[in-house]
Amino acid sequence: MAHEINTEILINASPEKVWAVLSNFKEYPNWNPMINALSGDMIIGKKIKIVVQGMKIKPVLLVFEKNKELRWVGHLLVNGIFDGEHFFVLVDNSNGTTTFKHGEKFNGILIPLLKNVLENKLKKSYYKLNERLKEQVEK
């Protein structure tokens, strides 16, 4: 079973400015309402440490492409129970603005039980993160 959350927001700044805020992990506690901490070496295939609303996870970094994309995948206990591939994508609109795409692809046997929570509560958190990122970048 699979479920996907996709959100996006237009930010009035270049991808470089958006990336500067998004990749400054030490500042997350000051603006990011969802991800309280993110640390580790940004090496593809290696585990990073993330605290998401108080919950500690250690996903594997999939993409860390400056000014373009940050993506990781995490698993609850073992693969196939509840897996999430989280992504942040920056699209250069070639006019001084950036479309920030943020979401997650979920897979696993628990998805049917958690679909309402994912779609209602979690999606709202993603939109809130988008808004706070926009505010932080544009100030």
- Counting copies of identical and different chains, the oligomeric state is single chain
Order of helices and strands: EHHEEEEEEEH
- Count every helix, treating DSSP H or I runs of 4 or more residues as helices: 3
Helical percentage: 25-40%
What class would the helix/strand composition place it in? alpha+beta
Describe this structure in words.
The chain is an alpha+beta fold. The protein has a single domain, classed as START domain (Alpha-D-Glucose-1,6-Bisphosphate, Chain A, domain 4). It contains three helices and eight strands, in the order βααβββββββα. A five-stranded antiparallel beta sheet has the order 1-8-7-6-5, covered by helices on one side. A three-stranded antiparallel beta sheet has the order 2-3-4, with no helix packed on it. The longest helix is centred in the last third of the chain and has 28 residues.
What's the layout of helices and strands?
Layout: E1 2-11, H1 15-22, H2 28-31, E2 35-39, E3 49-52, E4 55-57, E5 60-65, E6 69-75, E7 83-92, E8 98-107, H3 111-138
Antiparallel strand pairs: 1-8, 2-3, 3-4, 5-6, 6-7, 7-8
Helix pairs in contact: 1-3
Short description:
With 139 residues, this protein is of the alpha+beta class. It is 29% helix and 40% strand. The chain has a single domain (2-22, 59-138), classed as Alpha-D-Glucose-1,6-Bisphosphate, Chain A, domain 4 (2-Layer Sandwich), CATH 3.30.530.
Write a concise keyword list for the protein shown above.
Alpha-D-Glucose-1,6-Bisphosphate, Chain A, domain 4; 3 helices; alpha+beta; 139 residues; globular; three-stranded antiparallel β-sheet; single chain; 40% strand; 29% helix; five-stranded antiparallel β-sheet
